[in-house]
């Protein structure tokens, strides 16, 4: 992944001096960019670098999640547009287009309630 993102500064501002380009966990990858153009460039570079290693991006599993975005131009991989979603779950946290946490909090409360109801008296 580093070879795909070290050529340009097109991530999101993380600290005063550092940018975050992606989130990696096991075989999951979340690319981060401020603009549609930067995201398309980054997606194309990752697809090209992956293909050179014999790996291919699964377009059926790949999703585009935009927050506070003005561009409606789709992100594509090898000419195919990726599906755009209104909410996205990453490592158990739910993100929505408005940047709010209401859906995440409600889901976590529901999971805690279900776990609590499964407890048995001793």
TrEMBL record:
PROSITE patterns, per the entry: RT_POL (PS50878)
Every Reverse transcriptase domain range: 1-95
InterPro entries with a match to the protein in the record: DNA/RNA_pol_sf (IPR043502), RT_dom (IPR000477)
Transmembrane segments: none
Protein name, entry field: Reverse transcriptase domain-containing protein
Organism of this sequence: Sinanodonta woodiana (Chinese pond mussel)
Lineage: Eukaryota, Metazoa, Spiralia, Lophotrochozoa, Mollusca
């Amino acid at each position: 992944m580093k070879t795909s993102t070290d050529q340009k500064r097109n991530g999101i501002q993380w600290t005063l001096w550092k940018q975050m380009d992606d989130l990696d966990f096991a075989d999951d990858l979340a690319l981060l960019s401020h603009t549609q153009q930067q995201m398309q460039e980054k997606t194309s570079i990752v697809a090209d670098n992956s293909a050179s290693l014999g790996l291919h991006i699964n377009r059926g599993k790949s999703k585009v999640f935009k927050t506070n975005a003005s561009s409606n131009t789709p992100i594509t991989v090898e000419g195919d547009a990726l599906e755009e979603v209104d909410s996205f779950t990453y490592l158990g946290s739910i993100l929505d287009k408005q940047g709010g946490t209401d859906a995440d909090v409600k889901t976590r409360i529901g999971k805690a309630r279900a776990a609590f109801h499964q407890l048995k008296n001793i």
